[in-house]
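Hey team,

Filing this mostly as a record. A colleague (T.K.) asked me to run one chain through the structure pipeline before their review meeting, and I want the input and output archived in the tracker in case anyone asks later how it was produced. No errors, nothing strange. Just documentation.

Input sequence:
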Amino acid sequence: MKKPKLPILLFVFFFFEIGNAQNIFDTNIEKEYFVTLKELCEALLKQQNLDKNSLEFGGLLDPENDIYYTRAAEALYPFTVMYQYTNDKKYLRAAIDLGNWLITKQEKTGEWIENPWEWTGTTADQLLMMAAAYPELKKHLSKEEKNNWETSMRAAGMYLVEKMKPDFASINYVPTSSGTMAMLWKNVLQEDIFKEKAKKLAWQTIAKMDEDQFIHGEAARTHGVKYGVDLSYQMDMSLWGLTLYARFTGDKKVEDYVRKSLSKVIHFVYPNGIINGSWGARSYKWTGYGTKTADGSQILFSLFANENSAYQTAAFRNLEYLRTAIKDGLVGYGRDVWAFGSKTGKPNLYPTFARAKNLALALEYGNHQNGETKAIPADQGDWVKYFPTIKVATLRKGDWMATVSSYDYHDYTGWGKDKYRHFPRGGAMLNLWLKDFGMLTTASQTQYVRGETIHMPPIEDSLRSLTPRIEFRNKTGYFTNLYDTKSHIFIDERSDVIQIKTSGELSDKEFLPGGVAYKYDYIIKDQSLTKKITIRYHDRKPNVQIIEPIVLNEGVKVIQIDNKAVRITSPNSNVLFKINEGNVTLEVGKDKDKYWFPFPGLYTYPIVMKITTPAEGFKEEISFTYSVEK
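Output structure:
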């Protein structure tokens, strides 16, 4: 493990007295990682049981669920790294006590149960942290403790050798376990069985990677096989797990697969650090900074930062956005909604120790660069990237960045119940970013569903989706483009404009069409974005409306000017929303209190256009434009 460059007394002087922490780090990004890691670890320390007479001595109490959450023991590695960088023995003691506590919770067959559930796949994550920390901690363990730790790690390793495979878990566990097996083999137990299992798991993951380098297997099973792509899990877990395996074992071919994937997924990193995983099959936990129950992307970007410093830029931008979701050292759901609706007003410890784990890994294994780093793709040029295997396009044009998704994953058998049903699709424009303004629109579940009850708050109110959309309701149900699994994307890219067209049928949550077809035509210029919408009524003529929820960044106001125009003001940029054509009634702010979501943790303000149903004919065309006001 890495050592600080200066003695501890000089460290204290520089960091706490002068605030010039970069003096002990090779690069500024390491200082930034350390600052946030320290904040998270200090909050985690407050949750540790220090009563030596307690059966839970050393464990971390989850403030939301009032349990000693076994997964929280992963904090032992961040504590260890903090000890390495500060020489403060409170971190050393915390790490050892937490590891000893974790060992007492291990099942006889080697696994840990992720309480309060019965899931055991997270054994890979706990073992990874033990194996990463062990080279440092073993110098401070008694002979009995060393024996206990090595026995525990071997038992956990053998459990994963036997159990872990794509048939057992969502795909992110497979590459994570690959990295874990390689770490165990390299750092602790040089037994070939672990190296061999690591290789098998890595290549089983690569086999699930499509031609655009997206990894399938995050959602439901069909005939026992998992399908579904989730960008957040791919970046926050799978790709860096594969890379750790490749680096420990020298498997260059696997590393090249990761390298190709990373060069593509970086196009989903926005200028403000948001990573747009809102379109993924498991986006019910999408937070903007990643996904709530995964570790983070800093370690992934750091592993390749020496090859392209734009990755280091991306890592820092995302870290900055993560910081907006931290309160009192704990990581919440998102930027604006911290822990609303939870039992205690605090989030559970999961995202806090997970992000700490990620930052600790980035500090220890990253290849960081000095000086100014390159811009990320989102910062420069006019481009559009379309990925046909997932039917998602992301683009940067002038002052705008946006993502349009027709991702058509479908849980055919209902294996996941409602979990994988409500991610936005149907040619919707999801996260729309504007220079000097920030996020103008965003995306959420179409219907709020607690896909994992321990991680998602119980909310009694019927929330409205944050995703821009077309919709109608009638006596048979709710219909929207967001449930359309058969839409398509067509792209026309010219020097002065990017044009994206999508079409399909407004459908219900069973993905069944309801008699109204739609077309979206997005026309993106340097300082304007026009949406042309065509509604085709066939068989029936319900009351259709178009909804554009505006993200309430700090200082943003949405003011209706007249029956055709709305001015959206912010401290640094103003936007004029204007209806160009169409027989619609404009409503601004109706039911505004329902336009928020714990994931991605944002509040919005609705602009609603109610289409006047035609007495004759079968088509209505509506057009409106967002224009940057100078």
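Quick notes for T.K.: The first helix runs from residue 8 to 18. The longest strand covers residues 513-524.
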